[in-house]
Specification:
Helix content: 10-25%
CATH topology of the largest domain: Lipocalin
Strand order of the largest sheet: 1-2-3-4-5-6-7-8
Largest sheet: 8 strands, antiparallel, barrel
Number of helices: 8
Number of strands: 27
Radius of gyration: 30 Å
CATH class of the largest domain: Mainly Beta
Shape: elongated
Oligomer: single chain
Distance between the termini: 87 Å
Structural class: alpha+beta
Length: 458
């Protein structure tokens, strides 16, 4: 009996102790939280020049430079992110420190971190709410609150008075000009660039994503012009790297190393000094108004950065029979030519689009190289083009006035097919790109003269 009473009293005392989580020698919980918040806020306001953050949202991205100066209620954010017409170059916004999962630094107004969070339909992996982890030396270490799995680490280090000189905002803005001519329908293709190493007579071809700050180096070749590269061929590189823009340089986080033409080449830093919009256009019938950067790279010499559409992504577009639903032909604004364009205007009964590339069919009347429409009644109407080859990923489409119709064309149909094909393949040059879709092989032909896109399924 007495033993049971003693056990009960001990249980009551333990429960009472658990309910009083502050304990006899600790300040109340709310006071401890307030002290922690004030302590972190004081740390944030301590450095005279604020904080420098080399922000890398995900491992495969490049680096965004952000400077931060905190007062009691606001933070001044300066960055090298050129989105929204320079809105994020210099911005002062409110912030707060909360305590939920721990001490949380939250930027309360739309800012550079919010903008990066939105990229790729909010799948990029950036964040604007940070969990405070620890102080290491003079640095404050935070991590992402919203990451699933491994969390991004962010290290705030005290800034120096000359850190603002590292900003290369003009370069960030000018690099956006290279995205003006590239496939955009359904799944955008990052801008393609030719990096001409002038003193070596070698060119590197890579795709540059200025939103995520990474590059994928695809191939390199001997020569400085497109025709030289096509004639000489090249080597595949398959190299990826994030990059940073520091003090006038584009800096690869993973240096590009390769051997070509008897030379061992290391490409790590490119100083981009002179920008203009007078380089040759990818469309041969247009004036020279494409972007160009000139500069140099240490140990290599002069460099020219050009916009290009040459890419090893698309070299597998080879002779075959290709078809697609007629809806999947788009103008430069992403409008289907069947719903709102030249196909619908001339052949509203079109159901499919056919591209015969160097294939001899059982019917000898069907041209081996021809393009045209499949109509609702099953009839096929094709127009021949000159035999051609895929040069890296460039395909010339020179149309001829030779036609095939599986039935009997209506009056005026030939002129309508001429109108359709002339418009889609204006300029005579297209570039093939792969569209990554699991289970099927899809290519797209991109016309740089009108930015039309033709999706084709093998």
């Amino acid at each position: 009996m007495y033993r049971l009473i003693g056990t009960y009293i001990l249980f009551v005392l333990l429960v009472a102790a658990c309910n009083n989580d502050d304990g006899p020698n600790l300040p109340p919980y709310e006071e401890r939280v307030s002290t922690a918040i004030n302590s972190l806020q004081s740390e944030l306001m301590t450095p005279a020049e604020g904080w420098k953050l080399e922000y890398k949202p995900v491992p495969e991205s490049g680096v965004f430079l952000v400077l931060m100066e905190f007062t009691e209620k606001e933070v001044r954010l300066r960055s090298d992110v050129g989105g929204n017409n320079g809105q994020f170059f210099d911005q002062t916004i409110p912030y707060r420190i909360d305590n939920a999962l721990g001490l949380e630094l939250i930027f309360e107004t739309y800012c550079v971190f919010s903008y990066l969070f939105e990229q790729d339909q909010a799948t990029f992996g950036a964040e604007f709410e940070f969990l405070f982890k620890e102080k290491v030396g003079e640095n404050l270490v935070f991590e992402s609150k919203t990451d699933v799995g491994s969390r991004t680490q962010l290290e705030f280090e005290p800034a120096n008075s000359n850190d603002e000189d590292l900003f290369s905002r003009d370069i960030a803005a000018n690099l956006d000009a290279f995205s003006s001519i590239s496939p955009k329908a359904l799944s955008p293709v990052p801008p393609q660039q030719q990096i001409v190493l002038e003193d070596l007579g070698v060119s590197v071809f890579w795709s540059l994503d200025n939103q995520k700050r990474n590059v994928v180096s695809q191939f390199a070749g001997e020569g400085t012009t497109v025709e030289e590269i096509i004639a000489n061929g090249g080597i595949l590189l398959n190299h990826s790297s994030g990059y940073a823009l520091f003090d006038g340089f584009l800096v690869l986080q993973e240096p590009l190393l390769f051997s070509l033409a008897g030379q061992n080449i290391t490409l790590e830093r490119i100083a981009l000094t002179d920008f203009d919009m007078s380089a040759p256009n990818a469309c041969p019938t247009e004036p020279d108004n494409a972007p160009r950067y000139r500069g140099f790279t240490p140990g290599i010499g002069d460099v020219t950065m050009l916009s290009t559409l040459l890419s090893s992504d698309g070299q597998d577009f080879q002779p075959n029979v290709y078809t697609v639903n007629a809806f999947f032909i788009f103008d430069g604004d992403g409008n289907s030519l069947l719903e709102d364009g030249v196909i619908g205007d001339n052949f509203p009964d079109a159901s499919g689009f056919a591209f015969l590339y160097g294939v001899e069919l059982t019917n000898p009347d069907i041209p081996m190289n021809s393009v045209g429409l499949i109509l609702d009644d099953g009839e096929i109407y094709l127009r021949e083009f000159e035999p051609t080859t895929t040069d890296i990923n460039r395909v010339e489409i020179i149309l001829k006035n030779n036609f095939y119709h599986s039935g009997t064309p209506k009056p005026g149909d030939q002129q309508k097919l001429i109108a359709v094909t002339d418009e889609i393949f204006a300029g005579g040059i297209t570039y093939a790109f792969d569209l990554p879709i699991t289970g099927i092989t899809v290519h797209r032909l991109f016309n740089p003269c009108n930015q039309y896109e033709v999706f084709l399924v093998e």
